[in-house]
């Protein structure tokens, strides 16, 4: 959609209607992905998903560590 908007053949509102999104969503995407190529945008989305997955793992490990510390503190 961003590539189509760069071509300037259709107004942004019409493009948004065709793609089924709001102009606010378009603005958000433009701010986030701006001048990236489609391949770069895919890579960025993949990296963001991987980051979320890793943060979830770290959070789970932190909870487990806290639970172990609690058990150890009760045993003393």
From TrEMBL:
InterPro entries in the cross-refs: Homeodomain-like_sf, Transposase_8, Transposase_8_domain
Organism superkingdom: Bacteria
Listed name of the protein: Transposase
Organism lineage string: Bacteria, Thermotogati, Deinococcota, Deinococci, Deinococcales
